[in-house]
Amino acid sequence: MSRLRLAVVGVGHLGRIHARLAAKIPGIALAAVVDSRPEIREAVAAETGARPVADCIDLIGEIDAAVVATPTFTHFRVASELIRAGVHVLVEKPITPSLIEAEELVQLARRRQVVLQVGHVERFNPGFVSVQGRLADPKFIEARRQSSFTFRSTDVGVVMDLMIHDIDAALALVQSPVTAVEALGVSVMGDHEDMASARLQFASGAVANLTASRTSYAPARTMHVFTPRRFASIDFAARKATLVEPRTDLLQRGFSIAQLDEPARSLLREQLFQELLVKQDVAAVETNAIEQELLDFAQAIKTGSAPRVTGAHGRDAVAVAERVLECIRRHAWDGADSRRVGPLAAPISPSPIAATLPGDGWSGDETVVLRRKAG
User: Fold this and answer.
1) What predicted TM-score, i.e. pTM, was given to this entire model?
2) Phi, psi (5° rounding) for residue 343?
3) Domain 4-121+289-315: CATH superfamily, name plus number
4) What whole-number distance in Å separates Cα of residue 64 and Cα of residue 345?
5) Which of 21, 40, 56, 258 has its CA 20 to 30 A from that of 5?
6) pLDDT tens string for the chain (375 positions)?
């Protein structure tokens, strides 16, 4: 195959980034940018030299591959149309809003023998890549992902918007089925949860605590991973990682603080992270994660190899996200008999309004409870 003829479908914030990067990759020919909004597609076309198109169906037969960066609720429709036509697809995360649609896309891509890749871009983050190979058999993962409200991706909540990155990363590290999920979440701005916390338990014994918020004043994208041999701190925003490796005698329970005299203790206090818990900043190759994602997509198409994040990986992340969302929907804020259930419960418990209604069967002890829907 010569240069890969690529279209970017949906050129909003993320799609525009894909188009800009694809236009500069030697092995890719950016054939078209697709968007239903004329002013948007014309602007990106002028910037990248690609052809502006209103509907990706008009490109069938003219492209080899496509990046689908449309709103989440359209992913299945757009990606399935392209796959049926034999077009390789990189669909942004989440692959679809539901497990049923995700599985159908995976099976469709297999039948059509095309590459289906999912845009879990943190798998290409230099910080994550630099330590992933050294984190065998993780036992505890703690991730925090928070941002201010961007007014994008409002068709899904924070679980599908942000937490799904960490769900996918945890699944990639642990490589074991999720056996139990606990979660809670609350809506702040509208009809979807904007803050959520989940606890995943794996068949391997690993546990992952994941927290996500898109209404935070303090941005963060971090993950801490504990394995039997070492600890890793990953800063996705700074694209770097730190490892801490306990000395062998510590790991083997052969070190006793009680046997140290005070001078030895003082010395180790000063050199704790040089002598006992050896800390090192891991050198990460400075790369653009989205560009690496596009290069991986092109490589998979040209060689027939699997991409780093397959459609099945994206499907599995959605499967876990659906379990998290179900727990959020069931969460009772005031105990088992609570009337405040789920992410749309009013954040402040309303005061009951006692009313005596003579002739209507009401007693002075009965109450009317007022509730409101968030957003």
Assistant:
1) 0.89
2) -75, -15
3) NAD(P)-binding Rossmann-like Domain (3.40.50.720)
4) 47
5) 40
6) 589 999 999 999 999 999 999 999 999 999 999 999 999 999 999 999 999 999 999 999 999 999 999 999 999 999 999 999 999 999 999 999 999 999 999 999 999 999 999 999 999 999 999 999 999 999 999 999 999 988 876 788 999 999 999 999 999 999 999 999 999 999 998 889 999 999 999 999 999 999 999 999 999 999 999 999 999 999 999 999 999 999 999 899 888 888 888 988 888 888 999 988 999 999 888 899 999 999 999 999 999 999 999 999 999 999 999 999 999 999 999 998 888 999 998 867 555 443 444 444 333 343 333 333 333
Beta strand spans in 19-151 (E) = 28-34, 51-53, 65-68, 88-92, 116-119, 140-146
Domain layout of the chain by residue ranges: 4-121+289-315, 240-283
Nearest to 238 by CA among 220, 216, 217: 220
